[in-house]
Design goal:
With about 230 residues, the chain is mainly α. The chain contains ten helices and two strands. A two-stranded antiparallel ribbon has the order 1-2. Helix 2 crosses helix 3 and helix 5 crosses helix 8. The longest helix is centred in the middle third of the chain and has 22 residues. It is globular and about 55 Å long. The two termini are about 25 Å apart.
Amino acid sequence: MEKILVEKPSSIIIRKLKEMIELGVLKPNQVLPPERKLSEQFGVGRSHVREALKKMEYFGILKTQPQSGTFVVGLGAKAIEGLISNILEIDNNDFFSLIETRVTLELRIAELAAKRRTEADLVLVKNTLDAYQEAVKENSEDISEKDFMFHLSLCRCAKNSTLKSLMMIITPDILSQFDNKRVCSNDDRKNAIDEHNALYKAIVDQDSEKAREIMSNHLNPILMFAKEKYDLDY
């Protein structure tokens, strides 16, 4: 049976903005309406609008200037349309592709975090670690988000803004898949606390090889789950 793909709200917004560019409603260098108005116009929450705009800004289609707003960059309409098509293609990635990409990014982030972290960085990492542990203890609804905030704090240690941006692009899809597939049990999350603590210690010790090894072991179960889900043999 063929899979039915349900388009995400952010993808719908990107597609609608593409149509507006194609029709000339939005022109290069034109300022977009505020998030609130776009939210009302498209009938979605502002968080979805923000996610769509963030993706388009990362790919160089939009640009935000303080006190001026967000506007379409001065590329030709055809070039913009091509870039938007690429974003939509990325949005349609399957669960395994997202997880495989995340693993690739996070192994490098762990290495760099151990090498480049500062004492101030460690304070942030410890705060996000404590927040995740508290969320697991209370079985709160934002466990996945707290987990991601810990992983995102490692990007600060790694001192690589591009790695952080890439994580921000793919993570909303991964978190959504986590919730839909109910991937992580309470036992998995309690085990993750131990792994997070071990990873934090490796970064404190500036042991980049150990940090990479722990991160690999930490993410391997979800990678294996995704392989089994899609019956992949590679």
